[in-house]
Write a structure and sequence with these properties.
Blueprint lengths: L3 E11 L4 E7 L11 E8 L2 E8 L8 E7 L7 H4 L7 E5 L16 E7 L4 H6 L3 H6 L2 E8 L6 H11 L4 H8 E7 L10 H6 L2 H5 L10 E6 L2 H13 L13 E3 L7
Parallel strand pairs: 7-8, 7-10, 8-9, 10-11
Antiparallel strand pairs: 1-2, 1-6, 2-5, 3-4, 3-6
């Protein structure tokens, strides 16, 4: 177990019957860049049971926060969803991931495209002052099936708008666009369709997708990621990574179990 920090759960919040978030202590030796993930989990019968989770907290915060789905028969989440204040979780000592700004070539507008708990790394990134220094506009898109599933993101953005430090930055630069696919809501539709039709950009009163100025980060369901990859590559966008920055980056270590 020396490969892990043992952190104490400080609070747990259940947003819906399929979504929950929790906060835990953070060892002072645990370092990460905003947008990265770590292996986290529980000790079960003396052995670690782990999955990749993006940090939803920013690297300047003293506590760790994670946003998770509940899968009733999932090897980890079936147990993780039952944690309570005071319980111990395991956090891997090494953070990694592709959703960092250095993996993108310079641009003017940053699109953060997420579905479900894929919002987590962007919860971290929109609390990073450096992101606001790099881009003129940041567009946070969160797609879910039902309206209730948007609650975590809506509260996150609302709290930041009221924050003494980030309130001004958000007012000037952040555009938040929640959308659902299965219920009536002010924004409806799949992210791929909203971009293809320019509906997203029309709704936020912004210019359409532009290879010269737009940079993109994506995290969500495998189907959504594959559809968006094809869309962007079809328009000349190139995928970036640690060795070669590009127009867009994808986080592939998405938690489904």
């Amino acid at each position: 177990m020396s490969a892990f920090y043992r952190e104490k759960v400080l609070s747990v919040r259940h947003w819906t019957d399929t979504l929950f978030s929790f906060r835990a202590t953070r060892d002072t030796g645990f370092r990460f860049q905003n947008g990265q993930f770590a292996m986290i989990g529980l000790e079960i019968d003396g052995r670690p049971l782990l999955r990749a989770y993006s940090m939803a907290s920013a690297n300047h915060e003293e506590e760790l926060e994670f946003f998770s789905i509940k899968v009733q028969d999932g090897p980890l989440t079936s147990k993780l969803q039952k944690i309570r204040e005071g319980d111990i979780i395991l956090v891997g000592r090494k953070a990694t991931g592709t959703l960092i700004t250095d993996n993108l070539i310079p641009g003017k507008r940053l699109l953060l495209l997420s579905t479900g708990t894929g919002l987590a790394p962007f919860a971290s990134l929109i609390k990073d002052p450096e992101v606001y220094d790099r881009y003129e506009t940041i567009v946070l898109v969160h797609g879910c099936r039902q309206v209730a599933e948007l609650a975590y993101g809506e509260e996150l953005v609302a709290n930041l708008r009221d924050d003494e430090l980030f309130g001004t930055l958000l007012a000037e630069k952040l555009l938040y666009y929640p959308t659902v696919t299965r219920e009536p809501f002010r924004n409806r539709g799949r992210i791929t369709d909203l971009i293809t039709s320019d509906q997203l950009f029309n709704d936020i009163h912004q210019s359409p997708l532009d290879l010269e100025t737009d940079r993109i980060m994506m995290c969500g369901s495998p189907a959504m990621l594959e559809d968006l990859r094809k869309l962007f590559e079809g328009r000349g966008f190139a995928e970036g990574n640690h060795s070669a920055p590009g127009h867009f980056v994808i986080e592939k270590a998405f938690v489904e179990r």
